[in-house]
Design a protein that fits this description.
mainly alpha; three-stranded antiparallel β-sheet; 14 helices; 5 strands; 48% helix; 4% strand
Length: 362
């Protein structure tokens, strides 16, 4: 059985994080063209990465399957919006409080609703639930989550199948199937994913010959190699930039950051990135990075990136200043901000660097 809980490669995590961050920022999954273009800037192949993600069940178009995304291997059009499933939250922690944790609460609520639904001795009954039922039985759920709940339920095997629709008043509803009881003992996201994988695999084994079953995830050497943290194209553009500023220190920091990232030196990467953030404000005519965030005209997405980078100073302070203690450190390479955020900052540096004054010959 293909294990959806095993640690992913850095590149696979970048793909999921790129999709998840836009979802959390804008409330919708990004179009595939955005994902491809963002990963192109990091010298990564989004198409290859999404196909490399682990999946359980059928590999073809017959039989159920479940993975970290809604994508199952066919070509994606530029305007497609592949989504992440609840299972992806095991690898993108930012999704847990906004998607996975409330989904688990809804799942247990639905199990109770199904078990308490009235039955008849004379006719078949098909219990249903709607948004009002969820709000009543699981009070306190965030409005944004409730608005997105129909889309989340449609991706999860626990709530697949049965009828669904939208009433005349615009309220959605779904049928409650008896199969949801198979999740009654699930208490954590990992248990939910493991239960789902077991049930999906069992269904496919009953329906299809072994040749149709999902094969194990590609071995690490089949996944694209670890790309640079800072885009090599951006570094080359900075090296060629004609500006009044001397860029030798900035370029040295970027080269050292890439070298330490390739070697997975998490502490060195944290310190070097902090040094970059402290070094570049004069390019924007600012004295601090807070000034870069607050006073420079950024687009909506890049503004959100800059705020995240500003907040990164706290974990960098942890790396630099936390003293020896009896507690272990848990700083890992995955704790760095996404590469797309830092590359967006450096693209801004490149655009704002002032050119040297023109000299006029007499």
């Amino acid at each position: 059985m293909n294990d959806l809980t095993l640690e992913l490669s850095q590149e696979q995590t970048v793909l999921l994080t790129t999709m998840a961050h836009q979802y959390l920022l804008e409330g919708a999954w990004p179009v595939w063209q955005y994902v491809v273009s963002t990963l192109d800037g990091l010298d990564l192949d989004a198409e290859q990465l999404i196909r490399s993600l682990p999946r359980v069940g059928s590999t073809g178009h017959v039989g159920p399957s479940y993975g970290l995304t809604s994508h199952i291997g066919h070509h994606l059009a530029e305007d497609d919006q592949p989504a992440l499933t609840v299972a992806a939250s095991l690898h993108v922690s930012e999704l847990q409080p906004y998607v996975a944790d409330p989904f688990l609460r809804v799942l247990q609520t639905l199990i109770q609703l199904q078990r308490s639904a009235p039955i008849s001795t004379r006719e078949v009954t098909r219990p249903q639930f709607n948004a009002a039922d969820v709000e009543r039985e699981a009070p306190g759920l965030h409005r944004d989550f409730l608005d997105k709940l129909p889309g989340i339920l449609a991706l999860e095997p626990a709530t697949w199948g049965g009828s669904s629709g939208t009433a005349r008043d615009g309220v959605w509803w779904r049928e409650l199937r008896r199969e949801i009881r198979k999740y009654r003992d699930v208490k954590t996201i990992q248990e939910y994913v493991q239960t789902t994988a077991r049930l999906i695999t069992a269904q496919v084994e009953e329906m299809l010959p072994a040749s149709f079953l999902a094969v194990p995830a590609p071995a690490p050497e089949q996944v694209p190699g670890l790309g640079p943290y800072i885009s090599q194209r951006l570094i080359a553009d900075l090296e060629a930039k004609d500006t009044v500023f001397e860029l030798d220190k900035l370029l040295a920091l970027l080269h050292e950051l890439n070298a330490n990232y390739a070697d997975q030196h998490s502490y060195a990467c944290q310190m070097l990135l902090r040094a970059v953030l402290d070094h570049i404000p004069p390019a924007f005519a600012q004295t601090t990075f807070a000034g870069v965030v607050d006073n420079v005209s950024w687009g909506k997405t890049d503004k959100a990136y800059m705020k995240t980078l500003s907040a990164f100073r706290k974990p960098a302070d942890d790396v630099l200043h936390r003293q020896l203690s009896t507690q272990p450190s848990h700083i890992e390479i995955h704790d760095l901000p996404p590469r797309s955020y830092v590359n967006a900052l450096l693209q801004g540096v490149l655009a704002h660097l002032p050119a040297p004054p023109q000299t006029h010959s007499s």
